[in-house]
Amino acid sequence: MTERVEGHGGELALAALRAHGVREMFTLSGGHVFPLYDAAHSTGFPLYDVRHEQTAVFAAEAVAKLQRRPGLAVLTAGPGVTNGVSGLTSAFFNASPVLVLGGRAPQFRWGSGSLQEMDHLPLVAPVTKHAETVFSADDIPRAVTAALTAALTPHRGPAFLDFPLEAVFSVGDAELPAVSPIAPIEADPDEVAKAAGLIAGASRPVIIAGSDVYAGDAIDALRAAAEALGVPVFTNGMGRGALPPTHPLAFAKARRVALKGADVVVVVGTPLDFRLGFGDFGDAKVVHVVDAPSQRAGHVQPAAAPAGDLRLILTAFAEHPGDRADHTDWIAQLRVAEDAAKARDAEEMAADTDPIRPARIYGELRKVLAPDAITIGDGGDFVSYAGKYLEPAQPGTWLDPGPYGCLGTGMGYAMGARVSHPDRQICVLMGDGAAGFSLMDVESLARQKLPVVIVVGNNGIWGLEKHPMRAMYGYDVAADLQPGLRYDRVVEALGGAGETVEKAADLGPALTRAFDAGVPYLVNVLTDPADAYPRSSNLA
Ligand SMILES: Cc1ncc(C[n+]2csc(CCOP(=O)(O)OP(=O)(O)O)c2C)c(N)n1
Ligand SMILES: [Mg+2]
């Protein structure tokens, strides 16, 4: 049964948004989008405002990533939209169902030079799944439904609509289109069986599971497949925490040994990109399991590449009827490597050096983080260390920027995470360079009573650029920041609190104070600028 709705453009948009389960908007004010605010205000729809549009889009993305539902950012015409483009692009790379609604100069005098008159579509079309200008109020519910359907259909991603001023301010009426569940894409059963046979028959198989496994709600199916076929599991992105760290098949540290020794590498729900050596695993056969045919790699020829609903494919793997090779020795071999690496990590995480090394920060953090704490990485080397030393205990607790690698996600992701999980610890791990992109939005967090903890690894440099540049040229430029800068005082000035830590022994108590503070709290840890994250490649 469809419902008829009437009202101004903002009200028509909100009716359709609510029907799709959108529960809040992130925005920065501009007159072009006032009707959307009016609709929210008059119906008690939560609205969070920010100090830079990138924060609004990143907040919407965090909601989308964590909750597997659409996140909404409302951006005013022209500069509002252009400031959101890096956020949209990140959402595109991360397959996050984000909807950006933009204001737009009036259509009736298009070409006469209205304020902020520009056509946004050519800018956003390459980084969205659906981009459309909606020219009449009556058409808004249809367009919102089409945009959200595109965003939620695997392979997921962002969508964009803009509303010319007169369309969103005028009154109209329309049928509210029925919201139908997104039909799962069924993979070719022969390809699924071929993949399952390859894994089951392998002597030394490895699974690497990424973000789409979480987005596709296929975590349980992943575990069932791994257990049924006895395959060690490594993860990246939102796949992290898919298996609890104590699970006999959960691995993180032995990746190099695993990929060197594997005869079949199964990559599920993540592209064969730079993070995975572009899918080149030597002599090993590659099985690439993707959530839509568009995600099959063009640069690698996998032995099998089933494309479709990940839950269905992984469940079929678990139910594979044929013989299974025994992998006990292989798993035991990896466990030895894993345990040895863990012992080395434990030593590093306890290191009592002066200045503090990043590893120690994570050692202390692990003692105070709850298993369901959400950790967010925004920075260079400091975040690489976070990836190494933090072990997400549950899926949906780790937010990294993804393969677009955009600095500046920090406060936006923190806002989206806080709104998603009001009762959990939210902890942003931030480089001092990264801090410059979004720290002003602590003001938005403080004012709207959204406490989060920010731990800055303050090495006084753009570390991930300085060290490689020195290695390449023997000198560096444009890589220094002010050493010892008091980012904690910035946060204090913006309505939060914080402190600077210089001695390793002071870290634990500072972190405890931070999580108890009830306001945005920044722990500014002065770290050793000489410390460089060891990388095989110096370009990141
Ligand atoms: C928006 C954006 N600009 C520039 C870069 C390039 N970049 C990647 S890491 C990095 C250095 C980050 O420095 P910081 O946040 O201080 O972390 P550190 O490496 O020092 O731990 C830079 C500039 C980027 N990834 N994103
Ligand atoms: Mg730095």
UniProtKB/TrEMBL annotation:
Location of the Thiamine pyrophosphate enzyme N-terminal TPP-binding domain: 9-121
Domain annotation Thiamine pyrophosphate enzyme central: ranges: 192-316
Cofactor(s) named in the record: thiamine diphosphate
Alphabetic keyword roster: Thiamine pyrophosphate
CDD domains per the UniProt record, alphabetical: TPP_BZL_OCoD_HPCL, TPP_PYR_POX_like
InterPro entries: DHS-like_NAD/FAD-binding_dom, THDP-binding, Thiamin_PyroP_enz_cen_dom, Thiamin_PyroP_enz_TPP-bd_dom, TPP_enz, TPP_enzyme_TPP-bd
Domain Thiamine pyrophosphate enzyme TPP-binding: 378-525
Family, similarity comment: Belongs to the TPP enzyme family.
PANTHER family: 2-HYDROXYACYL-COA LYASE 2, THIAMINE PYROPHOSPHATE ENZYMES
Protein name per its UniProtKB record: Acetolactate synthase
Organism expressing this protein natively: Micromonospora coerulea
